[in-house]
Amino acid sequence: MPIKKLLERNAVFIAILITVLIAIISLVSLKGVHLLKTQNSDKYGHFLTYFILCLSWLNAIKNPLHKISINYIIIFLIICYGIILEVLQDILTTYRQADLLDIIANSAGVIFAVILYNLLKKKI
Fold first, then answer.
1. pTM reported for the whole predicted model
2. DSSP letters along the chain, please?
């Protein structure tokens, strides 16, 4: 079975898996994990993570009628998800804190994913 068919058939599972992994990584301690740190490097990670998350959901929930409202719902839900995780980091953990810049980076990743997805969809 070609990889493209395999990915298409499992798109919802992949999107759910990415969503759950983001929650786990957001709420567990990364103490002892050595990451390359530069100024604001975690913001790039937030951007990329939510960019991938949004693309995975846009791919999983194909919009056969090309109604743009589904894209808005996906954008809204993923941005809310990022905000909720930031709040939970502040409430549930002692080693993480909510950060407005993380929310902005998450949201930017979502918005750029939708823009790229719509541009590529028009070319196909």
1. 0.85
2. --HHHHHHHTHHHHHHHHHHHHHHHHHS--TT------TTHHHHHHHHHHHHHHHHHHHHS--TT--HHHHHHHHHHHHHHHHHHHHHHHHH-SS----HHHHHHHHHHHHHHHHHHHHHHHH-
Rg (CA), the chain: 16
Q: Identify the top-confidence range among 23-32, 39-48, 102-111.
A: 102-111
Check whether 121 has a pLDDT greater than 90: no
In the numeric block, the tokens 């058939």 are attached to 9
